[in-house]
Amino acid sequence: MTAPTTASRLVARARRALGDLEARTRPLNADTEAALARRWEELPAAVRTPSQLLGQRSSGCEGTHGVFPRCNFACSPCYLGSEANQVRTDAAHTVAEIDAQMSYLRDARGADQHAQLIGGEVTLLGPEAHAEALETMMAHQRKPMSMSHGDFDYDYLKRLAINPDGTRRFDFLRFAGHFDSLMRGRRDINRPRHEADLHPFRARFVGHFERLEREHGVAFDLAHNMTVTPANIDQVSEVVRGCLDLRFGMMSFQPAAYVGNPRRWSGDFHAVSMDSVWAEIEAAVGTRIPYEHVQMGDPRCNRSCHGLIAQRHWVPILDDRDPRDLAVRDRFLATFRSFDFERPPLTLAIALARVLVRDPLALRGAPGWAWRLARRLGWRRLLFGHPRALTFVVHAFMDAKVVTPAWELMERGERAEDPEIRAAQERLAACSYAMAHPDQDRLVPACVQHAVLDASENVRLRELLPISHTRA
Ligand code: SF4
Questions:
Q1: Residue 242 resides in a domain
Q2: pLDDT attached to residue 468
Q3: CATH number of the domain that 211 lies in?
Q4: Ligand 1 test: best mutation among 301, 393, 421, most atoms within 8 Å of CB?
Q5: Could you tell me if residue 95 is inside a domain?
Q6: 238 within a domain of the structure (yes/no)
Q7: Domain containing residue 173
Q8: What pTM was computed for the model?
Q9: Whose CA is nearest to atom 8 of ligand 1?
Q10: Using CB atoms within 10 A of its CB, is residue 10 exposed (0-12), middle (13-18) or buried (19+)?
């Protein structure tokens, strides 16, 4: 056999490089396209609307479960079951479980989907194990977001993101910090009396990431989460106003539901509606916030609006009353389906060029939309006001007492007679937030996980990872 010549080795290397470039700049992902098509088919007809993101742009959000159930806070309400704190946080268990769950989600839901590292307090993992968990999720092409109470020091974040030799372990981190006055246990403010008392802690949380970016070049995307009950609904506006200058990319509000630990329930949670929370957000930003033109799953579960903010002036990125903006939305959803915009700039530019080669009219209407958006925001703010994206979200979980019978009937393939239970079935069928059970070869809605499955899962975990074995 003759040895390959230098020229043939160069040709082989060039072929490999071209193949790699072709894959990285491919506009759409075939697996994700198939997952989107399946998701669209599964959706109830009532939510298969032009505004629907599920099945058109996203196969749904994802979350981990049973990977680190413990938390060192005591909140009212709390979605964790009472057994959760009797399970030890165990890095090996966490990473192995995450690997199995994310692998399943990659197969079922395609690539590049957003996945929450959730199910207890993530920082109890320690920075090394936390980093390993994120790397495991990314290895399965998930976009992980760590869900935390945000009560950690800069040193923790630095050890998570930066290797001991000073190089970056991550170029980009996504974190959600949960801050509200219903939480108990935060250092320096164990029992906040008002939401405003937490503003310095919100600022400190964001400040950690700004410092990490400044000192080590790690970019970030932050969400602010808040549980809403009758005790703090009238302070939602205060929270939004207090956060407008902080670099949160999302503010998400969860009206409380009767799920999780019943000893942590108090007051009439049903007195808080999506409308009442939305009205508070609108009062804070001083404008109407449209939401019906872009929908994730069932409108009884989710409400959201993507916008831009500069100098405390917030505008929606789409004007729901302008048919030209709605046409741009339709064209975007038809063209960019599984397109991943989170790529290095040159790779992104080539991928976009490939979209245009395939469909030269793909961006028709986009310049006009950009012009109108810039005018809404104001040219001065756009150019000098450091504009950034800010999305408002309300996500309303369901009570365990409706989810349990709804799911039992769905498991038997039956439709509920009771209108309340049937509504829960409709919402579960259009669920946008799934958790994986690879051992049972299925995904379940997070509502089902918390209302039906968490209790027995935590009992099993308590036997597997008893707290008495915890080492100091
Ligand atoms: S987890 Fe529950 S509330 Fe959330 S989208 Fe799914 S069914 Fe709706």
A1: yes
A2: 67
A3: 3.20.20
A4: 301
A5: yes
A6: yes
A7: 27-319+378-467
A8: 0.95
A9: 301
A10: exposed
Ligand 1 centre to CA of 448 (Å) is 8
Phi-psi region of 217 (alpha: psi -120 to 50; beta: other; left: phi over 0): left
Residue 319's φ and ψ, nearest 5 degrees, are -90, 110
**pLDDT at residue number 469:** 47
Dist. CA 226 → ligand 1 center (Å): 17
In this predicted structure, what is the pLDDT of residue 2? 62
Q: Which atom of ligand 1 is nearest to the CA of 397?
A: 3
Cβ of 432 closer than 6 Å to ligand 1, yes or no, is: yes
Q: Helix, strand or coil for residue 6?
A: helix
Report, as ranges of residue numbers, the positions in the chain whose pLDDT lies below 50. 469-472
3-state SS assignment for residue 187: coil
Spacing, Cα 11 to ligand 1 middle (Å): 52
Name every residue whose Cβ is closer than 8 Å to that of residue 456 and which is 6 or more positions away in sequence. none
Residue 314: exposure state from Cβ atoms within 10 A (0-12, 13-18, ≥19): buried
- Please check whether residue 218 lies inside any domain of the structure: yes
Report the separation in Å between the CA atom of 403 and the middle of ligand 1, taken as the mean of its atom positions.
10
Distance in angstroms (rounded) separating the CA atoms of residues 271 and 267? 9
Q: Helices 419-429 and 400-411 sit at what angle, rounded to 10 degrees?
A: 70
Cβ atoms 199, 246 nearer than 8 A: no
Q: Is 310 within 8 Å of 334 (Cβ atoms)?
A: no
CB of 301 within 6 A of ligand 1: the answer is: yes
pLDDT of residue 317: 98
The pLDDT assigned to 126 comes to 95
d(CA 365, CA 328): 6
Atom of ligand 1 at shortest range from CA of 432 = 5
Name residues whose C-beta falls within 8 Å of residue 383's C-beta, 6 or more positions apart in sequence. none
Contact 239, 177 (CB under 8 A): no
Fill in the amino acid letter for 9. Answer: R
- In angstroms, the Cα distances linking 52 to 77, 137, 320, 329 are 31, 26, 14, 11
Both tokens assigned to 453: 């499955």
The count of structural domains within the chain is: 1
Cα Rg, the chain, nearest whole Å: 23
Cα–Cα distances (Å) from 433 to 114, 244, 296, in that order, read 10, 27, 10
The H helix count followed by the E strand count for the chain is 16, 11
